[in-house]
Input
Amino acid sequence: MTPGLPAPADKRFRRAQVRPTGRRGLAWRRAQLAARSLAMVLVAGLAVWRVVTLVTESPTFDVAHIALHGTDRLSRGEAMALIGELRGRNILSIRLADWRERLMTSPWVEDAVVRRVLPNTLDVVVRERTPMGIARIGRDLYLIDQHGTVIDEFGPSYADLDLPVIDGLAQPPREGAPVVDQGRTALAARLLDDVARHEQIAARVSQIDVRDVRDAVVLLDGDTVMLRLGDRDFAARLQDYLDVATALKDRMSAIDTVDLRFGERMYVRPGRDDHAGAVPASRDAGGRAGGQ
Output
């Protein structure tokens, strides 16, 4: 080796210039990636937490207005007694289903929808029950719908409702609300639905008795005759009676019952003032009652 000249480096010993390879290098890279990912998640989580905190604490999202729709019998005051506590609460943190259930506790409410209208309004849509009649249970009167739900006790505040009185739906309860028989309720509902298509007939239905689930008995307004209609063709049978009512009353001084369940043939039971027995009658083409 010539003095003064640098000795060539042995390439076998250049480890400082060789990058780590194999499992240790791969693990190191994975650790760096995991650390970066964790840092990003923490930053994002902190940002979300900060946004949520700002939103839930901001008075901008406190409920300031409750828009109520679809109420008629249920007053705004009664509705607010159920959901008025929502005012001032954060609109995003409210569980809407819970407040819908509160509204449903009113017997007048058949269904309800509660919706958010950002930033600070709740939109409440109510569908009220429609009473089909006045159920007479014992000495008490109740508004009842077509499903047999007792809506409220009938009183002067409902004097504007022109509804038939329905007997036989339930026995007087020993305690609590009366339990209505569903079969009898269904019979009354079918009858009223059928006659509703005939305005002049519907307007005259005054009382309905459904004690016998296969035979509805009807009293018309201004008439004392009990009309047995069976369990179908209610409007047609009532029309049959109206067609011959005048002729029947001309022939008999008092009529207790007319049985209209047998098509063209009807059976007339005289009242106490008439000593004749039950008289079968039918309508001729002119609408007059004739004895059979």
